[in-house]
Amino acid sequence: MSQGIENKIVVITGASSGLGAATARHLAERGASVVLGARRSDRIAALAEELTANGYKAKAVQTDVTDQHQVKNLVDLAVNEFGRIDVMLNNAGLMPLAPLERLKVEEWDHMIDVNIKGVLYGIAAALPHMMAQKSGHIINVSSVYGHVVDPGATVYCATKFAVRALSEGLRKEVKPYNVRTTIISPGAVKTELLEHISEKDIQAGTKKFVSQIAIGAATFARTVAFAINEPDDVDINEILFRPTAQAV
User: Fold this and answer.
1) Tens digits of per-residue pLDDT, 137-148?
2) Which residues are catalytic?
């Protein structure tokens, strides 16, 4: 499954580990050129070097998605280097879970900045190029928690519900420009996401639960590839997947 992926230019935020890194490898192996953005420049530089050493096309750009100018620079570099942008994967996110009563206000602010504004900045950076091209594909990452609300995850859920709302509005607005949109909502996947939980009791309980059922990040990469690989006249708007063992 690579006919619709080969030679596409794909920009990925949050590419230093987990879902983003797995997707970069998966798409590069299928012929895409990947442009990797993340705060941890050493991680994405090493990943880009790994991919290019294996004969694939990859560039790394240090990017903090809470900074609009850095996200624009990431996308502009992709266009300058490869001539266009075909796919924007707004993947960067964090999940510092805690009940509202613990008043983790700084964490709420950070989640809003990364999980919502980071997605908006990705859209703002990619959309002008895609409108001019009259083609493109914007993929935003929500979560199972963008469909259900659990106690202790209220603010995180709110940010992921917001991603779905933004994505649906975007879908309706970009029809004149032949741009496709996809929301991907993963369940429990093995990533570093749980390391963002500062409340140790919640982190321990969540890690125990996730370790029993979580599936690999390659599953996410395959869903991204599926959405991209469909013909241009097919718009895969939303994919929700969970481990078979996950009830929530």
Assistant:
1) 999 999 999 999
2) 156
